[in-house]
């Protein structure tokens, strides 16, 4: 088993992609929903949308200062192919949002946005298909910042936390807006560019969709089933947890049932263009040159059974040394970890969140 930990004062690690796990029925306080529409939003690519919609959920109520600015905001950012709604799942919400819990919604104003191209925010499947602007992580973080500061009025945040892609966005928030938050918690990610096997399987995923004759350059009438099924096969492997799967898929029949059920339930929820764009958005991610700009304390947590962020690369330990107030924690493999998806099982890492918020 791996077990490594670097205390605050050492720096922060690598890069992450995010594949959202299936979300079970929510156990969470009632969420409010809203949309923020930005006019003539210009993307880093130079493309523009007359209207860019960012959908969001909020939990709890805002507390405001004399100038009307929200003072109790917490921003939580989802992973690739996910949405803010995934943080209503019992393994997350049931651990963190209750009375007296770390993110008690009677005290904190929790903001859960859907990133560009995800959830109910503007995305290719709305109608533009492959003509939708080719957004990247910079565009996604800019839109999040505008939502939080301009629309919701939170000029300062108690915490920015994210899982997988959202963890990568958390690094970017810390660099772009170093004085906007009190603390940062990136999970299941790395603060380095995506290369090697991590880039390889992403490119493979995009290729299997584009090489399906039914993709038709993105202008398909029905989903390209062969390409989309192959893409989901790759997502299963990327999100796999070897020990957990060895114990729970202990027979040939159970493996077959799992795969059949996965495809039956997940395949209808995906759009090929949306998935292509979501994975491609990581193409130029690389916060590593600017890690010294991060001013807030960072609690960086990965799990040792994460296929996407394998600990043997050593990126986390190396990069965390460059963060002024950074700590890296590697959670050992156990029957409680879920591979890359450990990021959403809050009971596994909530003590580290407690350390961060309490300043220990």
Architecture blueprint of SSEs:
Layout: E1 4-10, E2 32-42, E3 48-59, E4 73-77, H1 90-96, E5 109-113, H2 137-151, E6 157-163, H3 165-176, E7 184-187, H4 196-210, H5 225-238, H6 242-248, H7 252-266, H8 272-280, E8 298-303, H9 315-319, E9 326-331, H10 350-358
Parallel strand pairs: 4-5, 4-6, 6-7, 7-8, 8-9
Antiparallel strand pairs: 1-9, 2-3, 3-5
Helix pairs in contact: 4-5, 4-8
How far apart are the first and last residues' alpha carbons, in Å? 26 Å
Rg is: 19 Å
CATH architecture of the largest domain: 3-Layer(aba) Sandwich
Give the uncertain stretches in residue-range form: 1-26
Strand order of the largest sheet: 1-9-8-7-6-4-5-3-2
Return the domain count: 2
CATH topology of the largest domain: Rossmann fold
Q: Which range does the strand content fall in?
A: 15-25%
For the record, the CATH class of the largest domain is Alpha Beta
Q: Order of SSEs, N→C?
A: EEEEHEHEHEHHHHHEHEH
Mean pLDDT score:
92
């Amino acid at each position: 088993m791996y077990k490594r930990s670097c205390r605050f004062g050492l720096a922060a690690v690598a890069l992450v992609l995010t594949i959202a796990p299936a979300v079970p029925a929510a156990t969470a306080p009632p969420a409010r929903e809203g949309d923020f529409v930005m006019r003539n939003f210009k993307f880093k690519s130079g493309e523009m949308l007359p209207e860019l919609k960012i959908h969001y959920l909020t939990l709890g109520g805002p507390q405001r200062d004399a100038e009307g600015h929200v003072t109790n905001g917490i921003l939580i950012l989802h992973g690739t192919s996910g949405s803010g709604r995934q943080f209503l799942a019992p393994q997350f919400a049931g651990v963190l949002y209750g009375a007296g819990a770390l993110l008690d919604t009677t005290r904190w104003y929790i903001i859960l946005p859907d990133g560009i191209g995800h959830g109910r925010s503007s995305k290719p499947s709305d109608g533009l298909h492959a003509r939708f602007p080719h957004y990247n992580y910079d565009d996604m973080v800019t839109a999040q910042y505008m939502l939080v500061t301009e629309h919701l009025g939170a000029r300062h945040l108690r915490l920015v936390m994210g899982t997988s892609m959202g963890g990568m966005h958390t690094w970017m928030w810390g660099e772009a807006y170093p004085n906007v938050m009190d603390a940062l918690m990136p999970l299941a990610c790395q603060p380095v560019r995506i290369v090697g096997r991590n880039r390889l399987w992403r490119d493979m995923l995009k290729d299997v969709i584009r090489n399906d004759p039914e993709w038709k350059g993105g202008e398909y009438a029905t989903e390209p089933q062969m390409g989309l099924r192959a893409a989901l096969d790759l997502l299963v492997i990327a999100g796999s947890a070897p020990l957990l799967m060895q114990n729970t898929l202990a027979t040939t029949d159970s493996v077959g049932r799992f795969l059949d059920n996965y495809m039956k339930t997940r395949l209808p929820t995906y759009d090929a263009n949306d998935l292509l764009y979501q994975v491609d958005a990581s193409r130029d991610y690389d916060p590593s040159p600017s890690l010294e700009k991060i001013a807030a304390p960072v609690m960086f947590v990965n799990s040792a059974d994460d296929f996407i962020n394998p600990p043997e690369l050593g990126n986390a330990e190396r990069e965390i040394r460059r963060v002024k107030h950074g700590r890296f924690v590697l959670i050992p493999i156990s029957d409680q970890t879920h591979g890359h998806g450990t990021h959403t099982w809050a009971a596994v890492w909530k003590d580290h969140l407690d350390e961060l918020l309490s300043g220990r």
